[in-house]
Amino acid sequence: MIGLIAEQLAPVDAAEIVNRLLLPVLRQSDAEQPRNIADSTSLFDARVTQAIKLMEQNLEEPLSMTELTCRTGLSTRHLELVFRDVFDEMPARFYKRLRVRRARSMIDVAVATGFWSHNALSRAVRDEYGSTPTTMRARRSIKLMS
User: How far apart are CA 131 and CA 42, in angstroms?
Assistant: First the structure.
């Protein structure tokens, strides 16, 4: 059934539907984690896969389009053409949607763990560990669980 629906959709939309239909909102701790879009290497050519991997790996500190094109070896125009052909949108818009989806999942985690909002979770982390999640990410050396 999903295969039939996927034929009518853009690859990124098909991947999103599959994730929503096949993954429960809260998974067991031993369940397989959802894969990134770039893990579906059969859907895209190698350059698009490389660009998407770079985007997915750099959501917290997004790369500029110049940096992205330098790392993929494509010109800005060529990257735009490839993304428009595959996703029917510009790379910057695609990147922003990836970041928004990550933010949404983080909000879902906050709610699923009993916090009313992302801000409530941030305050609780700050109260418990003396640093905000942003500060902790910047240092990347603080362990939450001792």
Answer: 42
DSSP string covering 100-143: HHHHHHHHHHHHHTT-SSHHHHHHHHHHHHSS-HHHHHHH----
Give the separation between CA 51 and CA 30, rounded to whole angstroms.
30
Contact by Cβ (8 Å): 90, 83: yes
Report pTM: 0.57
- CATH assignment of 1-20+35-98, among 1.10.10, 1.10.3470, 1.10.357, 2.60.120: 1.10.10
Note the pLDDT tens digit of each residue in 50-65: 899 999 999 888 999 9
